[in-house]
Each structure stands twice: as structure tokens, then as C-alpha cells.
Amino acid sequence: MVVQTETVADGVLLVRLNRPDARNALNMELRTRLAEVFLALADDPAVRCVVVTGSPKVFAAGADIKEMAESGAIEMMGRRILRLWKPLADCPKPVIAAVNGVALGGGCELAMHADIIVAGEGARFGQPEVKVGIMPGGGATQRLVRAVGVYRAMRMMLTGEPVTAAEALSMGLVSEVVADDTVLDRALEMARAIAAMPPLAVQQIKETVYAGLDGSLAGGLLLERKAFEILFASADQKEGMRAFIEKRSPTFEGK
Ligand code: HXC
Fold this sequence. Notes:
The chain is α/β, with parallel strands linked by helices. α1 runs parallel beside α4, α6 crosses α7 and α10 (199-213) packs antiparallel against α11. The chain is globular and about 65 Å long. The chain contains 12 helices and 10 strands. It has 2 domains: 3-195, 2-enoyl-CoA Hydratase, Chain A, domain 1; 199-245, Orthogonal Bundle (Lyase 2-enoyl-coa Hydratase, Chain  A, domain 2). It is 46% helix and 16% strand. The protein binds hexanoyl-coenzyme A. Pfam families: ECH_1.
């Protein structure tokens, strides 16, 4: 299977890209499978947090160049790629990317579909599309700019040169850098912690942050206030606050 899934802990789904011979290049088969996995997990109450990873040497080398090399514009249009990215972009559950090795082109864009990026010290992030005569097509012209600012994003996209994990951290392109052999463990540790949080609150945080990102401050703050107030309708809010007062651990049920 080019995409493998495994429930690794209570509420934590691990999604692993598995095309080692092609450096996890995102061909149509892999992307279709990834989209199916994300569509299914969105509706699965047993999944509370998702970790997406590649292999120890490579996260993903981008779109499959061999599958595009001889394609025409109309054929590319016919692939309707957005329909494959959308389930990832719209995922209501928190997603953590655990990145070892290179995350290039569509691979970097895939990582940027996550909410948290944990990278190994040896990881490299880049948008090298310009070197093969194209440009980013999986969201980098928008998401990378929002993450790191125009000038750093432009340098990456116009030169095609990758940045190191340390640079990515200082730019704000990753959340955390750890030793290469601890990346997945760290991502799973974080995922387990998030999976134990009240799912409704987690979902509202994610939805409010992205909904507010492109709007006005006033609109974003209004959304935040509404989401904040709505959470007081949840049993988990009562449980969380009562548990704090009673000095015990809360149990959250997503209600
Ligand atoms: C198809 C790829 C590939 C890719 C690697 N391979 N990347 N096949 N598409 N993106 C294949 C190679 O052809 C080779 O196949 C095998 O994987 C091993 O690759 P090597 O280059 O020999 O390995 P290595 O020296 O370890 O270098 C790894 C690498 C390099 C740094 C990832 O392969 C590389 O730079 N790849 C291209 C990266 C890139 O340009 N990405 C942007 C793609 S465009 P054989 O058959 O020879 O063993 C893009 C557009 C996004 O992403 C649009 C939205 C999704």
C-alpha cells in the first residue's frame, strides 16, 4: 500500500507514505489514497489526532515528476488536483507532520497542510518546482508566504534551494526540531496528548484559527468569542473545570 494507516494509540492515527523507491513522490495513486484516508478519518469519532509521516530518509520528494513530464495543460486540469488536497485542507482533526529527510515541492506543501510540524535535525524543506520548469501547485505560494513572510518564501520559491530544519524553525515553518531518530516518537507523544484533550475544544481552536487567518481582526475575534461561548454547551467544559477544582484528572468524551 502506498499509504499505510495504523491506530498507534487511543485516538491517534498514524498515516505513513510508502513509496520508498520513488522517495515517496506523490503520484495520483498515493494522492487518491491519502484523500480517501482523510475523508474517512474526518467522520471517524475514534480518531482524535493524526500523524502524517514518510520514511526515515525522506518525507516526500514532491509531485511525481515522471507522471507529469509529458502531460499537457488540459490533462493536468482534468486531474482536478484540488479535490485530492481538499480533504487534507478541510480536515477537522488536528494533524501533525513528522518530517525526516527531505520535504520538497508537494512534499513541503503536504507538510504545510498539517497544524504542527515536527522535524528531524537533518530534515530539509524546499520548493524546487522552478528548477523543473513549473511552480508550486499545492498551496505554497499562499501557505508558505503566510507562514514565513514574503521575502523568505520568495527566496525559497524563486531559487528552489531548500532550507535546513534549523532555518525552517527560525522562519516559523516548523514547530519543533528534534534528533532525527526521535521525530516520530515526539510527534506521537504530542498526538497522544492532543488526543486526550476535549475534542470539541480542539476542533473549535483549529476551525477558528484558520477561519480567522485571512479575515479582519474584528471578524476573527468575533468568531473566537462565538466558538468560546459555544464550548460552554459541552459536557467536556463542565468536566474539565470541575476536575480542575476537584483536583483530579478529567476524562473528555467529545460531548
Ligand atoms: C518522481 C522521483 C521524484 C519525484 C525522486 N524520484 N523524486 N520520481 N518524482 N519528485 C525518483 C528518482 O527518479 C529515482 O528513481 C528515485 O526516486 C531515487 O531518486 P534519487 O534522486 O536517485 O535519490 P536521492 O539521490 O536520494 O535524491 C532524493 C531527492 C531527489 C533529493 C528527493 O530525488 C530530488 O531532488 N527529487 C526531485 C524533487 C523535486 O524536484 N520535487 C518537486 C517536484 S514538482 P529511479 O527510477 O532512478 O531509481 C512538485 C509540484 C507540486 O512537487 C505540485 C502540487 C503537488
